[in-house]
Amino acid sequence: MTPSQYNICVKQYADGVYRFIMKNLRNSDEAQNIVQNTFEKLWVKREEVNFEKAKSYIFTIAYRNMIDVIRASKRISNIEDYHENVMSASITEYSGIKTAIEKIVNKLPEKQKSVLMLRDYEGYDYKAISEITGMTEAQVKINIFRARQFIKEKIGSINTLL
Fold this sequence. Notes:
rod-shaped
């Protein structure tokens, strides 16, 4: 295809391509971008395209470009929907899991519950917990270990909660 034939294609088909894209997308800016990209691709491949088949080539490029735009906009909207769903679900799941863990902790024997709360919730070290509870440090460590094991076992079956 020569440059003059390319110009003829632009004059003959640009409006038709624009109307075709506009009917489908209903977005003027996007339609203009697609028309521009279509004729840019035609210019790059002008030596390989036969002038007699230029119309079908132009509409094929425009159609494929339009499909890409539609897919991209769907992905963006799907990502936004997914993000909203994850945020709302994670808040709901978090509060459910938090409640479930609180129930599990409340089932612990009093000593284990106390030392676990002091260690994991309040941040005290073993020596401070020992002084607060009157237990030896070894007893504190054992009770914390047993409490964590109990919670781990119950959380292992947490799939029943979700």
